[in-house]
């Protein structure tokens, strides 16, 4: 029964993290260049159950079936599917209509990646993000506004799961990306969030129902434990 409480605790903890992730995705359904974050869970390895109640002196090991202690959040990944392109008509707006990410240098010098091409020009006629981060070219220099499509440094990753979120649609990676030689960049467009509000609402309803099921199981376990402590002890 105590083990049942521990298993239910792990289950509710997983549901809490799923709920937080769903809420974050829904909150960014209108955020330009946002990529939905998905969680995946795994099951703990099965362990062998046994006791020492075999034999005439109850000192021999008796093996029973295996037991699994529940599930856990094994990690997360970004949904790299492309969002729809929205025409803005602004010359400082850009959308990547292919794989890849814009490369930017944050104010602390850190290199980050984003699909949000909602840029502006600074006093040096250089493209910067709305936060003021420099937009870099393939050779690592700030990109200056010129005629035609600017020479943005577009980087792709063989596995988007290596990207770690820095918040505000910026990502970093411990694995070096590959410079794309001919990325498809559309000027005057922005990429919308790829979050499906309907799918997230379905996931939220499912998570709420799982919360309710775990709550009922917790109540039943608590009643059983109450009887074991307060009634069986009197016999």
TrEMBL record:
* GO CC term (a single one): bacterial-type flagellum basal body
Domain (Flagellar basal-body/hook protein C-terminal) ranges: 187-230
Q: What GO biological process, any one, is recorded here?
A: bacterial-type flagellum-dependent swarming motility
Every copy of the Flagellar hook protein FlgE/F/G-like D1 domain together lies at: 95-137
Every Flagellar basal body rod protein N-terminal domain range: 17-35
Cross-referenced InterPro entries: Flag_bb_rod_N (IPR001444), Flagellar_FlgE/F/G (IPR020013), Flg_bb/hook_C_dom (IPR010930), FlgE/F/G-like (IPR037925), LlgE_F_G-like_D1 (IPR053967)
The source's domain of life comes to: Bacteria
Query: Which UniProt keywords are present, listed alphabetically?
Result: Bacterial flagellum, Cell projection, Cilium, Flagellum
The protein's location, in the record's own words, is: Bacterial flagellum basal body
The record's section on Pfam families has: Flg_bb_rod, Flg_bbr_C, LlgE_F_G_D1
Q: So what family is this one in?
A: Belongs to the flagella basal body rod proteins family.
Q: What is this protein called?
A: Flagellar basal-body rod protein
Q: Which organism is it from?
A: Liquorilactobacillus vini DSM 20605
What's the encoding gene here?
Answer: flgF
């Amino acid at each position: 029964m105590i083990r049942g409480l521990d298993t239910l605790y792990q289950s509710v903890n997983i549901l809490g993290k799923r709920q937080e992730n769903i809420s974050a995705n829904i909150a960014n359904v209108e955020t330009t260049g946002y990529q939905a974050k998905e969680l995946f869970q795994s099951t703990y390895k099965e362990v062998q159950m046994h006791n020492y109640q075999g034999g005439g002196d109850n000192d021999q090991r008796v093996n029973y079936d295996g037991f699994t202690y529940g599930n856990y959040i094994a990690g997360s990944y970004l949904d790299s599917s492309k969002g729809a392109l929205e025409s803005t008509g602004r010359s400082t707006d850009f959308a990547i209509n292919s794989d890849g990410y814009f490369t930017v240098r944050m104010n602390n010098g850190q290199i980050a990646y984003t699909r949000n091409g909602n840029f502006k020009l600074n006093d040096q006629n250089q493209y910067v993000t709305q936060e003021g981060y420099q937009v870099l070219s393939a050779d690592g220099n700030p990109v200056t506004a010129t005629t035609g499509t600017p020479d943005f440094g577009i980087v792709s990753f063989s596995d988007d799961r290596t990207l770690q979120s820095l918040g505000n649609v910026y990502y970093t990676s411990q694995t070096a990306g590959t410079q794309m030689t001919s990325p498809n960049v559309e000027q005057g467009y922005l990429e919308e969030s790829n979050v499906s509000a309907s799918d997230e609402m379905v996931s939220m309803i499912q998570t709420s129902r799982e919360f309710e099921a775990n709550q009922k199981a917790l109540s039943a376990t608590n009643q059983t434990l109450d009887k074991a402590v307060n009634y069986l002890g009197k016999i």
